[in-house]
Amino acid sequence: MRLFISEKPSLAEAVAKVLPGAVRKDGAITYVGDDAFVPLAGHALAQAMPDAYLPDDVPLNKKGNKIWREQDLPIVPTTWIMEPEARLQRNLAAIEKLLKTVDEVVHLGDPEPEGQLIVDEVLHYFGNRKPVIRLLVNDYNETKVRQSLANMRSNDAPEFRAWYRWAYAQSHYNWLFGLNLTRAATLRARALGFDGALTVGSVQTPALKIVCDRDRAIETFRSVPYFTMTARIEHANGPFIGMWKASDEQAGLDDAKRLVDGSVAKALTERLSGQIASITDYEKAERREGAPLPMSLNELTVAACTKFGCTGAEVLEAAQKLYDRPLQLTTYPRTEVRHLSEAQHADAPEILAALRKNLPAMQGVIDRTDPSLKSSAFNDKKVDGTSHHGIVPTVATADLSGLTPLERNVYDMIVRSYLAQFYPPAVFMQTKIEAHVDGERFLASGKTPVSLGWREVYAPVEDDAAAASADADGSEGKQHLPAMAQGDAVTCAACTLQSRETKAPERFDESSLLKAMIDLHKFTTDPAAKARLKEGKGIGTSATRAGIISELRERGFLEPLKGSKTKFMTSKSGRGLLDALPGPVKDPTMAGMFKIALDGVASGEISYEQFIERNVGFITKVVTGLRTASMNLPVAPGVPCPKCRSGQLRQLKSEKGPFWGCSNFTAEPKCSASYPDQDGKPNFQMKAKPAKGFGIKKVEVA
Ligand SMILES: [Zn+2]
Question: Which CATH superfamily is domain 297-422 in?
Answer without folding.
Answer: Topoisomerase I, domain 4 (1.10.290.10)
